[in-house]
Design a protein that fits this description.
The chain is α+β, with helices and mostly antiparallel strands. It has 2 domains: 92 residues; 43 residues, no CATH class. The strands form 2 sheets. The protein has a 3-stranded antiparallel sheet with strand order 2-1-3. Strands 5-4-6 form a 3-stranded antiparallel sheet. A hairpin with a 5-residue loop joins strand 1 and strand 2. It is globular.
Length: 182
């Protein structure tokens, strides 16, 4: 038996579709790609189990369908950070097959990382200016009324890790600050 789950940003935008043989896979950060980690570190995430207690082959088909429906970001077809079309999973793979898959994903991530490092400083500056402040939710200090332009800015000012503050503001952890989303 298996589950099909989705990960969403706090604004409910779906960014990942997955399957697992146990519910704990939906909550695990292990074995995720760099784009998944970057998204989670930047925005935080919510977890929803879409289908529970379905047979594994059915879960594979549902995962394939949902990935095709929402579209992969790396192919320019959507917002999902999934690196495959789904349905392959690791269940039933032998050690050699798992090793080959891990090597392929590592090589893919290295290629993407190398591409980013080879971009000129001018290109990086231009992209930074073009995206600065876009899509950022503002944060307000309810005690003194100070407004931060981003979660990153707020976390640096109050000296709390970005992911910890994100979890507090998204009600995943108790909010021990005077900060709130605007």
């Amino acid at each position: 038996m298996a589950i099909v789950y989705k990960h969403t940003k706090p604004n409910d935008e779906i960014f990942y579709i997955g399957i697992g043989v146990a519910k704990k896979r939906a909550y695990s950060k292990y074995g995720r790609n760099n784009y998944w980690h970057n998204t989670v570190n930047k925005f935080g995430y919510n977890i929803d189990v879409l289908f529970d207690n379905v047979n594994y082959e059915e879960a594979q088909q549902i995962e394939k369908y949902l990935i095709a429906y929402y579209g992969r970001k790396d192919l320019g077809r959507g917002n999902l950070v999934n690196m495959t079309d789904g349905g392959e999973g690791c269940l039933g793979m032998n050690k050699e097959e798992k090793s080959k898959r891990a090597k392929r994903l590592t090589e893919y991530n290295k290629t993407k990382k190398d591409y980013l490092f080879t971009q000129s400083k001018e290109y990086k500056d231009k992209m930074s200016k073009a995206t600065k402040g876009k899509g950022c939710k503002k944060v307000i200090n309810t005690k003194n009324g100070f407004i931060y332009n981003s979660l990153s800015e707020a976390s640096k000012d109050v000296n709390i890790y970005y992911t910890t503050l994100s979890s507090m503001l998204n009600n995943k952890k108790p909010n021990k600050t005077d900060l709130k989303w605007m």
